[in-house]
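Most newcomers find our protein records easier to grasp once they have seen one. Read left to right, the backbone structure tokens trace the chain's path through space. Once this layout is familiar, the rest of the handout is easier to follow. The record below serves as our worked example for the rest of this section:


***
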Amino acid sequence: MSLPPGFLDELRNRVTLSSVIGRKVTWDMRKSNQAKGDFWAPCPFHQEKSASFHVDDRKGFYYCFGCHAKGDALSFVKETENVGFMEAVEILARESGMTMPARDPRAAEKADRRSQLAEVMEEAVKWFRLQLHASGGAEARAYLERRGLPGPAQDRWEIGWVPDQRQGLFHALTAKGVAPDLLVDAGLCARPDEGGAPFDRFRGRVMFPIRDGRGRCISFGGRSLDPKARAKYLNGPETDLFDKGRSLFNIARAREAAGKGQTLLMAEGYMDVIALSEAGFGAAVAPLGTAVTEDQLRLIWRIHPEPIVMLDGDAAGQRAALRLIDLALPLMEAGQGLRFAVLPQGLDPDDLLRSAGAGAMQQVIDAAQPMVRLMWQRETEGRDFDSPERKAALDKSLRATLARIADPSIRAHYGEEIKDLRWQLFGRGGRKPARGASGFRPFQGGAPGGFGRGGRFVQAPAVPMPATRASLLASGAETAADFVREAVILAACIRHPALVAKFETALERLEFSTKGHDRLRNLLLYHHGRDDLEQALQAEAPVDADEVLRHPHVLATSAIRAGADPVAAETCVAEALARLQADRAHRVEIRDAEDDLKGVVDEGLTWRLSRAAADRQSAARGPQDTKGDAILASNGVELDREELERARRLHESIDFTRGGRPRNH
């Protein structure tokens, strides 16, 4: 539906951002200035102890300097309540006493239908609860008692029972005036193929209500007590209220518990979640009878940046974990991943809690492994690597897996961890490097320094002279060119604020080489949309802004000057970003290739070097030069003299007749 002009402005004027967010956070009053509408708190979107989440009541915006979450009251309600835009508007309007405008007839009809279905589901909850406490529910009550769920716990989870009758629920609710069509559309009843009155979809089952993030009952899960039943667990069908792939059991309670600092746990079924919650692990959820979907994974990441997946100790649990790894790899972002807790063989969380208690479960959670370890286990467990060919096959499989990680920073760190694990498996001459309890190589005496990539000892650098520390080359960038390109990008965005929106994702992901550049990037994203953007930056970070805007290369670039053509400025930023990415990727390839010379390599090594060099050349030519790309596509990679010579020397150092080992070994 469309809102009348001025409605959202009036809504934002009536709602105080700090009052909306204050329900979810605890303000740090040492940093906050309530009189000026300036508030700080730990971020509700990621786990942290410091107060890096800033709320500006006067501007009506929030921003986290840690995870870069930003927005206004509407976006905050959308993210924390897991609702759509119009639902967020309705929530804030109701709290502020504003009347929502009339909807168009079709939208109003659809909303009314959903409201009716939600009411029918609540009536079903009441009827199922009544049947559990009736004489016919004795078997179900005894089953729940055996599973460690006494009466108070049954009430907390609103567990019910449905008798084994064809039309028990149908007759009970239609007697209350509920239309048969509503029972069918809610997923509670089904129509027979041969026609006639609808029949109950659930019969002879313990019933678990499934509620959404707003607490509405949207479906049921039924557990059969008949050992001969075709399906032990049965979920309701997809309806206007219920989408299996976008829902999680116990999502509302888990989000509240996670907001109070608990780690989010993802178990397999209803009873696992209930057992975990009753034992004090309240931030527990479960998928609904299907493998975890991409939407469910994104949903749990909105609740907690690094949830722990509880894996049953059987083969099925291991297979589920491997499927989840493949799903998660392309979706991971910085600070957002998965850990895996493997339970003892043959036990699920409910079994472990009943047999060994909450302490044993906490030990399992504390021992949860990062996803990279399970990925490595999948590639190596049960395999023998006693030949160069088998080792090369492992390398090929690992490279293919790492290539699925979209985030370049995460991909690089995964590569480092895999190299370390590979070193432990193969070593040199069968030896494995010494490791400390933390998992990192300890310092082993001698001159100050440490062990770097590939196990090489690196001498600590000499303390720089004051003049050296003040130079451009000591700014923290690997090359001075990186520093210059970053300055060009930031200056263009300051002079042409519209570019911030166009390159927002690239700016968020870009790793800047200095704290000053990083600080400017954060302020650009925070103040995005202001007409006086440059003045705001000059006021909050005058030294950093002056350093960028007065840089000689920036002053010499006509596309960045005030009043310059915005299209030229956009092209300038795109070229600088492309060249930064290409140069950094090229340096990574060179370092990786040099490390690979210490182990097993193949002819693909020189191809990687030449490919990286070609990417550098393509970025240097800019997005408008398509002729060079055509040459690369038709004639192979065209290297400059320096790169060609380096690739040639590297290629000649490898003896392919000896399994790809360097000749000097």
